[in-house]
Design a protein that fits this description.
alpha+beta; Beta-lactamase; 2 domains; elongated
């Protein structure tokens, strides 16, 4: 009777749950690092939208970034006051303090956009004035409107930089005119990738010109706009920073639209190139062209590739496989962001081909999510195993 009772109890006790473990993956695109046309001085970085990796050149030490800082200004404003692609947003009333800032910036030779007391700018118009003609006074206007004061807004800028992992970036103002506003080419390229995920910002920096209520027609300072697919992002110049340019350029590669994103900083005037900003454009154009030459579409996940293992104490490990192939476009040697997400514990029986997770691949076309399925089914623990192990 004791034996019968033992068999009965062991046969009905719950077996341990099976565990699912993801496997480490090497997602680097095949091939060696390409030979890119880096600037002869200063620092630069280039990558592909949707990938976390960058190729970099130069010291990547913090340097003044001038009006490139306005990318963060726009990013913070749009975080605090989200704006739809075709929306104008709330109205901003120009105050006497905003006019005083305009007059001061004009008198000190800064880049400005005319404003007058009582003028009403929509949020979108203010962002256009900030990003295209690069109004330093508009950066101050937006900072006060968003956070109440420049000091409070700068704190938000630095907190956002920290949250984005921009470890060598420090903002002292919203316009970038202060030389204490510093960053690296790599940090600014990463920020540009984050900023270009905002459809309204992406649309604004791709505009050749805008018409503002008082200032009238204002032109985009980006002289490369529309050349070789360039669709943004922001220029900058001060005597301390030299010529700076954060860029995005779209190209079609095997039917996939790929956006090359990068930055060149500290470009200086030379006898052959008397304008530092033109030197930045020249350096960026060469870098974009060389990067686009090496773009390719690569399969990073193969259909049937094992990316995880289902383990149970009573059966052999069962492969967890990708249901389909995943391709991304990029530069050889860079790594797309790949994340394997699994159901950590499951109870038998588990049928073959049952999805037990997914692999996420972030690429230029967005995030691709591919189901992970069992190669074969997991049966319940046998009575013999239960009698021996439970």
């Amino acid at each position: 009777m004791a034996a019968v009772a033992y068999v009965s109890v062991q046969g009905t006790r719950a077996a341990p749950a099976a565990t699912v473990q993801p496997l480490p993956m090497d997602s680097a695109l095949a091939g060696k690092a390409p030979l890119l046309s880096w600037p002869s001085h200063g620092e630069a970085a280039v990558g592909v939208e949707g990938m976390g990796d960058l190729y970099t050149h130069g010291s990547q030490q913090p340097v003044p970034i001038a009006s490139v800082a306005k990318v963060m200004t726009a990013f913070v404003v749009l975080h605090d006051h989200p704006l739809g692609l075709f929306a104008n947003g709330p109205e901003i009333v120009v105050t006497p303090a905003d006019v005083a800032t305009y007059q001061h910036d004009l008198a000190t030779g800064q880049s400005v956009v005319p404003v007058e007391t009582g003028e009403r700018l929509s949020e979108r118009q203010a962002l256009e004035a900030l990003l295209l003609p690069s109004g330093n006074n508009v950066a101050t206007l937006l900072a006060r409107w968003d956070a109440g004061s420049m000091a409070a807004f700068v704190r938000r800028m630095n907190a956002t930089a920290h949250a984005l992992g921009l470890r060598r970036t420090r903002y002292a103002d919203a316009s970038g005119v202060q030389p204490e506003t510093v960053s690296t080419a790599a940090d600014q390229a990463r920020l540009a990738m984050a900023a270009m995920t905002l459809p309204v910002l992406r649309a604004i920096v791709d505009l050749p010109q805008v018409t503002l209520p008082l200032a009238g027609v204002q032109y985009n300072v980006n002289a490369l706009l529309g050349t070789d697919g360039v669709a943004g992002v922001k220029t900058g110049y001060t005597p301390q920073s030299g010529g700076c340019f954060v860029f995005a350029a779209r190209q079609l590669v095997d039917g996939t639209t790929v956006t090359v994103v990068g930055a060149v900083l500290e470009q200086r005037a030379t006898p052959a190139q008397p304008s530092a900003l033109e030197a930045a454009f020249t350096a960026a154009a060469a870098l974009v062209t060389s990067a686009e030459h090496h773009l390719e579409v690569v399969r990073v996940i193969r259909s049937g590739e094992t990316v995880g293992i289902l383990r149970s104490p009573w059966a052999t490990p069962i492969p967890l496989r990708a249901a389909t192939s995943v391709q991304v476009a990029g530069l050889p040697g860079l790594r797309p962001a790949v994340r394997v997400v699994v159901t950590p514990r499951v109870k038998a029986p588990v049928p073959a081909r049952r999805p037990l997770g997914l692999v996420e691949v972030v690429g230029t076309a967005g995030t691709h999510r591919d189901p992970l399925v069992l190669a074969w089914g997991l049966r319940p623990a046998s009575l013999l195993w239960r009698l021996s192990n439970l």
